[in-house]
TrEMBL record:
Recorded coiled-coil stretches: none
Pfam families linked to this entry: CEP76-C2, CEP76_C, CEP76_N, CEPT76_peptidase
Domain CEP76 N-terminal: 10-69
Main location: cytoplasm
One GO cellular component term: centriole
Family classification: Belongs to the CEP76 family.
Function: Centrosomal protein involved in regulation of centriole duplication. Required to limit centriole duplication to once per cell cycle by preventing centriole reduplication.
Keyword Cytoplasm listed: yes
Record key words, sorted: Cytoplasm, Cytoskeleton
Alphabetical list of InterPro entries matching this protein: CEP76 (IPR052299), CEP76-C2 (IPR028926), CEP76_C (IPR056288), CEP76_N (IPR056289), CEPT76/DRC7_peptidase-like_dom (IPR056290), Papain-like_cys_pep_sf (IPR038765)
Protein name: Centrosomal protein of 76 kDa
Every CEP76/DRC7 peptidase-like domain range: 354-484
GO biological process terms, semicolon-separated: regulation of centriole replication
Organism annotation: Oncorhynchus tshawytscha (Chinook salmon)
Amino acid sequence: MSLPPEKASELKQIIHNHLIKMNIHAKIRDVLAETVREDLDPGHSSLSEEDFLRALQCRGIVDDVMKDLHFSKVSSGKSSCFDRKCLTPTNMDPARRYLYLQVLGGKAFLEHLQEPEPLPGQVCSTFTLYLHFRNQRFHSKPVPCACEPDLQEGFLLEIHREGLGDGSKMADATTMLSICDPVHLVLIKRDTSSETTLVSSYFLDWRTVLSSPSGKTSVAVELLGVGSECKVTAGVLNMSLDLYPPLSEILSPDIITTQQSLERQKTAEKERLFLVYAKQWWREFLEIRQANQSKLVKIFAQDENGVNRPVCSYVRVLRAGRLLESPRQAARFVSLLGLEKAPVVGGGGAGKQEQWCSLLAFLCRNKGDCEDHATLLCSLLLGFGLDAYVCVGTKPKSLAHTWVMTRGTDSTITFWESLTAHRYLHQAIDPDAPPLAPQPRPSYPYRTIGCVFNHRSFLANCQPSDAVELCSFDFHNQSQWKAMSEEAVGSVCSPGSTTSLPPLPPLCGPSLEPSAASNQLELELRYLVVEHRKDLGLATVWDDHLSYVLSSALAAYELERCTGTSCGNEEFQDAVRRAVPDGHTFKGFPIHFLHHNARRAFATCLRSPFCDEIVCCRGDHVRLAVRVRVFAYPESACAVWVMFACKYRSVL
């Protein structure tokens, strides 16, 4: 992991000070003199660096240095971790308050009771713990899945004040008591084929540490399952919470309990009032016309913990900083996150399992259902300043679906499919037009629409027909759309309105280095092609220049997915014509993946008869080429383009 320049110089200074403290220079001089005296005969002209390093190791100098030199564990995020034995960690601002959360191992993960001990070097399923606290995100190192997983990790969380001009002031006990933001813990399991599973999502109230005289407390966190298993214990994590610097005045446990109780009562009252309002609003909606009973109007949705939340609370204004440059790039990013419907125990149910994920759980798992994609895309489009809404309706065959809609200042309606990043312009059909009058033909795959919502608004479709092609999207027309009160929606959905709302995590930068990932995957695919052809009794000769020429096509494919416009095709065709001699035939096969697993990609490619024909090409003067381009996006999302090609002399 690379360090910023200021951290690198800081680390060098720590090591330098430690070496001076050990009087290392005197020890080195003694070893050097002894080595020259003992190990050199008159025939040697000089002492090599390797000889001297070996002498230092033999005399235990290197071991002594490393034994006394303690480094902190470092986790991804703004802050770093520190060792409690080190009371003045160098990566901490002495004017700030920090919470050191240490994970001390897990137990009672009974699903892995029969899990065998992994052999050294063996690929096995792993657990990774993700954290989010007040705009700071961290994750642990992956550890093998076990009944008692060895999750040993520390995270340094900064507790900052939020008042104007208070960002640099240290938070006192009273200020911290009023900070109701929990530490959101998400445990992810990754199997041997890199498939991820959400194990648990837990909100930890850390404020019990404010009543500890030592500024340190231990807690056993019982992690519950998700979805249909949200009432079943998944496992237990042992943790310790440590405030740094310690409080000069601690709080009584009764004060903390009272504060938490008041927050719960306030939240419960707001949710009760909203539920009363929503029931009344729903009765009024049904009284408008009989057909409204069959429309898909969704006011509440269950999250991964089985908690019913207003759908508007799943959408927030999300700005991606420098990570995403445009709304269309945001749509491309969301489409690269995998699609997976919530699993249903038994599998034979008529409907799918209800599960809308909190944003952190969705991002950490790197996949989710269409609702998760739509709410994330809507949040990002709102961050880019668009008037965006999530649409709830159906696709062909009456399959429930969600997608995103934006309204332009000129009343233009655009649909965004969050699973593919495709955009569709909506033009309403006039049902009262003469039979022979030309009508627009819809290009979008949506059939009906029951309601739309974002972080501030919820509107139900009360038009005579809920067919998308017949709908008007004039939200100010109360005869067409029945809106909820924005004040009522804001009372339970606006940031900070209730303590039950999960905090909004920031997006993290790409976890891949594109060039290195592209080179590695290309080398692995070349090896697999050579081995596959060897099994067929065929030799393999690579054309490196042709492989390089394929790069421009892959870049153009990704650009087209991002912007919707195609460019560079003329240059690519011209370069291929120059690279393929007269009398030769060229064949190419591009394919797109959301992962960078070489064996999975190669197996998928061979299932295509076109690719199999290229890889297994027989003929005169056959030359093969393969090119890989990995495009990294925020989180661990990536677009992987692979093109196989061959050229050979045509024989009539």
